[in-house]
Amino acid sequence: MKNIVILTGAGISAESGISTFRDANGLWRNHRIEEVASPIAWQNNRALVLEFYNIRRKQLFEVEPNAAHRALATLEKHFAVNVITQNVDDLHERAGSTSVIHLHGELKKARSTRDPNLIYSLDSWELKEGDVCGLGSQLRPHIVWFGEEVPEIGKAVEIVSQADALIVVGTSLRVYPAAGLLAYASHQCPVWLIDPAASPEYSLPNLTVVRKSATEGVPELVAQLLAITIK
Ligand code: NAD
Known about the structure:
Bound molecules: nicotinamide-adenine-dinucleotide
Radius of gyration: 18 Å
Number of helices: 8
Order of helices and strands: EHEEHHHHEHEEEEHEEEH
Strand content: 15-25%
Largest sheet: 6 strands, parallel
Structural class: alpha/beta
Helix content: 25-40%
Distance between the termini: 13 Å
Strand order of the largest sheet: 5-4-1-9-10-11
Number of strands: 11
């Protein structure tokens, strides 16, 4: 086993204190998430969209990676590891993972509304109306909104198709195209799904479902994989 691919969703960060969307029934201040995380919302109510992400960014500056993020990072000592995450937080990087693809963007970055290649790291939690890129255009959150393309999906498909093992953590596997990535794993590739509410109808030839929280299930699996390698 050489290449380990890790696919994570909001559940891996839940025990760090970042709530998943479904915890709040998909609502934020009585707005459906889709109504604040979309190009239409940005067009119609920019202040609301900026506030929604500012609150999330502020929270991100106050939380830490948990035992699951840290355990996954230790795999890099023995395997080639690629993390593909649906999360917009930076907890994998802060735990020590060095190859992380953010399918849905990154909360601590902003980008130009004129040139999408102009991407800036944010040192503070607040992004305001009037904050502009080098070309003078308003900055927007560097987030893939509902209805927008997922630019990194092609790279993610390639990485999953070369996996010798796939570890999936804390995702409802309801948000596409990320959820479709599992189908690109080879038939020989063992797949572990760690999620306390993993759907019973999900089936793959080599799937092991671990209905445990991320901080319990991930360190256990990592210890097993390391034990096999070290023997
Ligand atoms: P989701 O909300 O659809 O599903 C979260 C999953 O996490 C559920 O299946 C739930 O059972 C599981 N879960 C909850 N607590 C857990 C724990 N302690 N350990 C392990 N699993 C746990 O999230 P999703 O599948 O990632 O997709 C929804 C979208 O939400 C994504 O697009 C993502 O970008 C976005 N999101 C990201 C963050 C973040 O960056 N941390 C937070 C909320 C939402």
